[in-house]
Amino acid sequence: MSKGLSNSSVGRKVLMALSGFFLLFFLAQHFVINMLSVISADLFNEVSHFMGTNGMVQFVLQPVLLFGVLFHLGMGIYLDFKNKAARPIKYAMDKPSENSNWMSRNMIITGVMIMLFLGLHFYDFWLPEIKDKFIDGKWDEPTKYFPHLQHKFQDLARVLIYCVSFVFLSLHLLHGFQSAFQSAGFNHNKYTPTIKKLGNLYAIVIPAGFVFIALFHYFTQL
Amino acid sequence: MDLTLKVWRQKNREDKGALATYKVKGISEHASFLEMLDVMNEQLINEGVEPVAFDHDCREGICGTCSLYINGEAHGPDRKVTTCQLHMRMFKDGETIYIEPWRSAAMPVIKDLIVDRSAFDRIQQSGGFVSVNTSGNTQDANALPIPKMNADKAFDVAACIGCGACVATCKNSSAMLFVAAKVSQYAYLPQGQVERTERVLNMVEQMDKEGFGNCTNTGACEVECPKSISIEYIAKMNREYLSASITSEK
User: Fold this and answer.
1) Is B216 close to A79, i.e. CB distance below 8 A?
2) With bands split at pLDDT 50, 70 and 90, how would you rate the model's confidence at A2?
3) Cα–Cα nearest to A142, from A43, A37, A39, A40
4) d(CA B184, CA B180)
5) What's B118-131+142-247's CATH class?
6) CB contact under 8 A, B214 and A83
7) What are residue B111's DSSP bridge partners?
8) Which CATH number fits domain B3-110: 3.10.20.30, 3.30.70.2970, 1.10.3470.10, 3.10.105.10?
9) φ and ψ at A176, to 5 degrees?
């Protein structure tokens, strides 16, 4: 009988998909805000200040986002352990590339790489922001965001790490976008081909955009 | 054709097992793969070696008994066929062919190339049926109007022969294509509605108990399935399961 979604294989798939949808939405809005930094420093500062000080964003959406990220990572690793245990003896000869693509088979690798990148990203941007507001009590600094961003992207090594990380993000999304729909039960002759195309577009445009932003700030400061 | 065969040999469940190398000569390219194995076994008997145990029954691609992982693919390099319908023309003269049993914790090797697929039986017994009163007054199934599309879809998934190629080929040893087929074939038909909610919950629960892995949507199963059952039915099962989880009173 039904034991709750998190206790069944199908339920866990659906929960992975739901957290994936949430992260897809978050990534898109993060991308849009970051693109503002290319267009106008003032506009970027204004929107960043709003996001950094708005109560709803800070005290409701931010904890939900943190939970979503940690859940997606934790469940992904847990499922990978279970999946590996389901085949204790490997094939002597195996040709997985004959029936599936690399991205679909290596979500755990691309996912862990993205999480390692997030460690750096949090160190760069999130932790200083938390320290400013919650330790130093400095909530009203509406012009700090753009200079902080510029400062981080002066370092070539950091820019390169960001660019490589976005390649892993792209590989993850190339499978993850359409896979989330499939896991949530949405597979339809009429709509699935379009979802797959949209997924490929999203998986290329968003990471490529982030790469562009990192390179833009690096080269404009040379 | 002259071939080198790397065949998995294992005395029983407890034995560790290993690949053994055998050479066979003069195999016709028109022979089926199982006929080639018959020739190999005759050769082994003549040499005083115990023949290799492998599953087979109808040899017509409809019973789902044959189950070999050949050169890194479930049922070999051909598509939409079971091992018994695979022909030697798919291989080259002088080729080395790896022949292994399905690999899954839920389908342990019994002997050589034979695995225990009773996990599938237990999943079926947990809900893969329709309860029908056989008192003599059973309604003719054809008297029930069924939309053509639903009938076609039910027929497509009912084509599943339970061979286990989906489990064997899935990198996670997931049985979701099999279970999805068995859940969906009834979900599309009026006869399956009475037990619809309990069926999907019970079958998924039994699948999890057996120790199969989780589906990660690689799509490998639908490529290797000899009956070309689509992963759209896994999405269908997911919908059925979600709906049943929410609406079930148990």
Assistant:
1) yes
2) very low
3) A43
4) 6
5) mainly alpha
6) yes
7) B114
8) 3.10.20.30
9) -65, -40
Are B41 and B49 in contact, with CB atoms under 8 Å apart?
Answer: no
Residue closest to A176 by CA, chosen among A123, A112, A110, A129: A110
State the CB neighbour count (10 A cutoff) for residue A221: 10
Strand, helix or coil at A88?
coil
Residues of B in contact with A1 (CB under 8 A): 198, 201-202, 205, 248, 250
How many Cβ atoms from other residues are within 10 Å of residue B60's Cβ? 9
- Between CA B69 and CA A19 the distance in angstroms is 36
Q: What is the pLDDT of residue A167?
A: 98
User: Rounded to 5 degrees, what angle do the CA atoms B39, B43, B49 make?
Assistant: 130
The residues with which B5 forms a beta bridge, in sequence order, are: B22, B97
Q: Which B residues 199-228 touch A at CB under 8 Å?
A: 201-202, 204-205, 207-208, 211-220, 223-224
Mean pLDDT value across chain A:
96
What average pLDDT score do residues A90-117 get? 98
- Residue extents of the structural domains in chain B: 3-110, 118-131+142-247
Stated length of chain A: 222
Global pTM value: 0.95
The per-residue pLDDT for range B127-158, each reduced to its tens digit, is: 999 998 778 877 787 888 999 999 999 999 99
Mean pLDDT of B62-73: 97
What single-letter amino acid sits at B5? L
Architecture label for domain A5-85+103-219:
Up-down Bundle (1.20)
Q: Which residues contact B209 (CB under 8 A, 6 or more apart)?
A: none
The C-alpha angle with vertex B244 and arms to B160 and B165, in degrees rounded to 5, equals: 20
Which DSSP letter does residue A96 get? G
Q: Cβ neighbours of residue A129 under 8 Å, at least 6 residues apart?
A: A52
Q: Look at A11 and B241 and tell me if their CB atoms are within 8 Å.
A: yes
In sequence order, the 6+-apart residues with CB closer than 8 A to the CB of B232 are: A187, A188, A189, A192
Alpha-carbon span B118 to A55, nearest angstrom: 57
Looking at the complex, does the CB of residue B67 fall below 8 Å from at least one CB of chain A? no
